[in-house]
Each structure stands twice: as structure tokens, then as C-alpha cells.
Amino acid sequence: MVANRQEAGVSDAALLLHGMMCVAGADGSFAEAEMRMVEGYFAQLPELRGQDFDALMDEAHAIIERHASSRESLSELRALSTPALKTKLYLLAIDIALATGQIETRESEMLNALKDVLDIDEPTASRIEDVLLLKYV
Fold this sequence. Notes:
Layout: H1 12-24, H2 32-44, H3 53-65, H4 70-73, H5 83-98, H6 105-118, H7 122-136
Helix pairs in contact: 1-2, 1-3, 1-5, 1-6, 2-5, 5-6, 5-7
């Protein structure tokens, strides 16, 4: 279950959206395929379903505004309430990055930073990547 508010005042839902948007925009633009995936996840994920998209987007923007860059803002994702949510976000991020057919250099750098911030171990990261690559082959 997702906590309504974190200690810093940011909800798990806003943190998930923030992480997805950081990856979607990592290459300097938001591709249509990436945004469709974010919107789809918003409708499907139990943590996001029924939430106010605009309000969560405002929270996600506020996270970025507190930092010099979106990559630096990833540090706030440590506040996700459970390891399961951190793993889920990493999976979602890889899926979004693969949506355009290939992972660009800046996306790869963002994903590596995300993996570090979320403390995703290498075996778990490799399993997630291997399974999602099957989806796009």
C-alpha cells in the first residue's frame, strides 16, 4: 500500500510519477511513445489509479524545482516508502526508456543513476532488463 505522504511531504504516487518523467525526458524530449506509457501506467498502477494527474504532476515539478537538475532530483526517490516500490519504479523506468526502440546515452545515464539511488542490486536489475528486452525484441 502506498503512503499518502512521506516525511518530506511528497507522496509515493508523486515520487513514482517524478521518476517516470525523469526517464521519459532524459534525452531532452518527451517522445509520444514514452508519454503514452506514462499515461497508461497512470491508469493501470494501483499506486496511481484514481489520483489527480495534475496535482501529482505539480508535486513532481516541485521536486525538480528544488534541485539544479532532474538527475540531481532523483535523490528524493530514496523516500519511496518500500523496497518493492523502488523496484517497481526501476522496472517502469526501463520499460519507458525502451518504448522508443533503443535506450539513448542520456537515458542510460539516468537509468544508472536511478538504479543507484533506488539501491537496486545488480542481479535484480539484470533480471528486469532481460525480461523487458524480450518485450521489445
